[in-house]
Specification:
58 residues; Protein translocase subunit SecE; elongated
């Protein structure tokens, strides 16, 4: 494990990285939020099914 080589490669990646524009950030945040909402909705639907179907839950 060559530590100076590893540090140089990390610095090179950080130099290539840039902050996203507001449009790109908002689009990624919107897609991530939609994914979280979809997973939450799916969990809620499963909860409702487990609550109303006899013998499906504990």
């Amino acid at each position: 494990m060559d530590v100076p080589f590893d540090l140089n490669s990390y610095v090179r990646v950080l130099k290539l990285a840039s902050t996203p524009s507001w449009e790109e950030f908002s689009r990624v945040a919107l897609i991530a939020g939609a994914g979280v909402a979809l997973v939450g909705l799916l969990g809620f639907v499963i909860f409702l099914l487990m609550s109303f179907v006899p013998g499906a839950g504990l």
